[in-house]
Amino acid sequence: MHAPTIAEKATPYWWEAAPLTPLPEQPLPKRLDVLIVGAGYAGLAAGLMLAREGRSVAAFDAMNPGEGASTRNGGITSGSIRPDYDTLARRFGEEKALAIEAEGKAAREFLYDFIKTEGLTCDFQLVGQFKGAFGYEQYEAMGRSAERLAKKLGIEAYAVPYAEQRKYIGTDVYRGGTVRMDIGGLHPAKFHAELMRVALASGVAVHGGTPVTSIERDGSGFRVVTSAGALEARQVLVCTNGYTDGVVPFLRRRLVPVRSRIIATEELAPEVMARLMPKRMMITENREVGFYYRPSPDGKRVLLGGRDSSRVGDPVAPKLLLRRGLVNLFPELENVRLSHSWFGNVAMNRDMIPRIFEKDGIVYATGFCGSGVVWAPWIGMHAAHKLMGHEERARSAFDFRPPAFIPFYRGNPWFMPAFIQGYRMRDRIAMWRASR
Q1: How does pLDDT run across 166-183, given as a tens digit for each residue?
Q2: Residue 328 belongs to what domain range?
Q3: Which parts of the sequence belong to the FAD dependent oxidoreductase domain (predicted)?
Q4: DSSP 51-108
């Protein structure tokens, strides 16, 4: 048996099967119909739609395309919204809350159909998701939410009592939970590579390692300066999310980059995986700062992720925190080695809802709040239709006012460690109450 160790690699597990490949340099066009800032899921999905409608399109990324969250995430197709239904209803009214919930269903269905019709080879499996409850009150509330989803939206969702929990997940930490069968998993780096493939084939020019340094109004269009030179664009779409920099200060004041870290175990014996994850579902928890985890697409490893309160470097403490969480869930993994540990930035905003909006002629598709596998392609596609003036096809519950700005914030999230520790304290209090 191996002694516990920190992970052997600090790069994403996903890069083993789908390594990032720098794109060859290409000439910079003088003029474009649409210039896209960011070549992750949202930027490529938007570019694909625009190019197929005959627009000249180029996407510019400061890093290798996909090097951000698009190839670092957990690959769970949850499309979750952080505020619950009751909170959404209080903030925006019942009609808006239901529209947001309904669009989640539509966005997942779009993603699954898109993968199928485009022939994207990305290990997608519609296996369902189990969400664990801490205490009877949580279980009851989650059961009511599942019932509402089933009745109002026709989603296959149901409660799982504690007595039946082991059929779904090999732990006794939870006190029951809920299942949604409209959620699955994919290989995020393969998905990005395939999305890149079809975008390039459709005529989207993608420039990696080419940061945009300024965007200025120039008559009816824009003058955009990049590290490779300047060009003119009739329209500009910004899809930078958790890697937003100072070139768009309006957006930077409204999005907070938050680290999300994932660990991957070494390969486990088939009988171990059968005990721990008998249905191969995606797993999440009903906590403010809980874990999300899943089997690897080949069913041989456990991948577990959560928020990382660090801000610089690659410290040991967040890795140990996730490892302790893994062992707490599955004590038999105490001496299992970790093969990979990595992190990436997600983008949060004050109301925790994804957005499409326009400001000074620039269209933004951003703010995916940790659920970009579903929301980024969906929001990017709708932003493309907005740019093309397709009113009906562009309509979305997420196309409304920009997120509120964050006072005293200019891009340095100095307050996030304290916020995350506060959320963890609230979780500890909630768990203490549930255990009484």
Answers
A1: 999 999 999 999 999 999
A2: 13-128+182-435
A3: 33-385
A4: HHTT--EEEE-SSSTTTTGGGTS--B-----SS-HHHHHHHH-HHHHHHHHHHHHHHH
